[in-house]
Amino acid sequence: MYRRWKFQPKARGTALQSLYEQPIIKSAKGFSKTRFLVVDCEMSGLDSNTCQLLSIGWVVIEHGRIINSTGKHLLIHADRGTGDSSRIHGLLDNRIAGANSAASVLMLLIKQMQNSVLVFHHAPLDMKFLQKASIDNFRCPLIFSYVDTMEIERRRIQMQGKSSSLRLAQSRQRYGLPDGSQHNALADAQATAELFLAQVSYLKTGEKLSLSDLGLRCAF
């Protein structure tokens, strides 16, 4: 909460103002009444101090259903190149040379974040890059609530007394979800959305599920 009030004056007049002014989403809110924005990022490497965002993909879940028409995949110009990770995500320097600025992509993302809970698979990594990009461009961090499908899966496996891979592909396999093309931000966001709904179905009926059951956290 301290960070919200600390940065709120700086956020006024920027693309972040609406995020700082919206009410905090309560953990008691029901799953079925919540709008979720499932987000995935591709980066040039793992160190947010030396590497950059290359693309962001997202898709919306409303009323417990994936809204495929909301799917978005945006490339981001990286002035330091795509790095060694290009062999994983396939984003070569020539593909992002004329791409969008990080600021313009963040502004589109921020519009989608309104009154939504974000969903990531391995949230710390994506959030680290998103927050750095936000501070670099708007001088303030992003403010939002989120859940992490990797953490949901970690808790489920621990309760079963098991140990297993928490990677997206292996997590999907445990729910009988098909293999899909990954290392594309939109494809991974859609794959994460499918995993999230499978996890929700496993936990309990969506009508009875609250955000606290999903490990809701706040990024501020």
Secondary structure: elements and pairs:
Elements: H1 2-11, H2 17-21, E1 36-43, E2 53-62, E3 65-75, H3 86-89, H4 93-96, H5 102-113, E4 117-120, H6 123-138, E5 145-148, H7 149-159, H8 168-173, H9 185-203, E6 217-218
Parallel strand pairs: 1-4, 4-5
Antiparallel strand pairs: 1-2, 2-3, 5-6
Task: Please provide a written account of the structure.
The protein has 220 residues and is α/β, with parallel strands linked by helices. It has 9 helices and 6 strands. Strand 4, helix 6 and strand 5 (145-148) form a beta-alpha-beta unit. The longest helix has 19 residues, at 185-203. The model is unreliable at 85-94 (pLDDT under 50).
Separation of the first and last Cα atoms: 6 Å
CATH class designation: Alpha Beta
- The neighbouring-strand order within the major sheet is 3-2-1-4-5-6
CATH topology: Nucleotidyltransferase, domain 5
User: Structural class of the secondary elements?
Assistant: alpha/beta
